[in-house]
Amino acid sequence: MTPTPPRPSDKPAEKPAAKKQSGNPATQAAISQTVKQQREQKRQEKLAEYQKQLAKRRRSKAVWWTVGSVVAVGVVVAIIASIVFAPAPPKSYTAGGDGTEIEGVEVYENTATHVEGTVDYAQSPPAGGNHNAIWLNCGMYDQPQTNENAVHSMEHGAVWVTYDASAVTGDELATLTAEMPSSYVILSPYEGLDSPIVLSSWNHQLKVDSASDERIPQFLEEYWRNQNVPEPNAACTGALDGPGKQ
User: Fold this and answer.
1) Which regions span the lipid bilayer (predicted)?
2) 2 lies in a domain?
3) What's the domain count of the chain?
4) Has residue 100 been placed in a domain?
């Protein structure tokens, strides 16, 4: 038996429910106003959030700009300070001298033989004479040095600048140090000086009372690396470092 197909329903299809609206115009206006307010509120919230983020970025930029400015100023200050407070370069003198006479310079005649032991020098500090076979390395010293080694350095053309450590201190010592060349000079205290400062080269010596005496650079210009020494142009390094070398 053939099944009977289902008969279409005679009931009409239901239409989708329409969006409810208020039949009261005043109520409908209130609903519309509420929707607008909600939209405006959301817009204001988004705007406030955007402004907040924008302000945050501006503050961040301001902080980094301030930090960068401070760093830049610090670098400039450091550069200026390094220039202003940098130590002055060593004085430069002409080797050999030109025979200029300097008031107060004493001239001697000393022998030049390598010996062992202590030497009884004719001058104090010595301005030449017999000496140890090992020379003293040139440089700045804050302790007294052995005569016999320093004299050997003078034999090579060095100038030995000695000072009374009880009289030449602080600014006075700084002034004296500033007159020194970078090589072929020994600066050291010396015990028993009869003058605050004594400059000695081979067979020449000058005694002064002040580091500001204009004859100090004159003496160095004339006798620094003097060629009238037993061993001109021999080394003033590579031998003995005395105590207190700076």
Assistant:
1) 62-85
2) no
3) 2
4) no
